[in-house]
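Quick log. Single chain, no ligands specified.
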Amino acid sequence: MAKALKTNQSLQWLNLYSNNIGREGTVAIAKALEKIQSLQGLNLSSNNIGPEGAAAIAKALETNQKLLWLDLPNNYNIGREQAINEALQRNRAFHVVRQWKD
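-> predicted structure:
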């Protein structure tokens, strides 16, 4: 799916809620986020994204200026909240961000 996202220029919303994509899937999605410019909303809640996945999302947010909405609740103990928050501060496009509970 991540490979298809890199070339898709029409997808606007992607809901991956509770798909257990884990760290590897999240890293792949993050790499796609660096390329896709049509995606406006992404739901990654309840996916066990892990610290590496969160770091990859933070990196992608530095270059992707089209994503407006990011949903991350119920991804526990990822330890990268600060990295994501810093990336969001640099990315002025965001309107809504829901983060996790500990």
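The radius of gyration is 12 Å.
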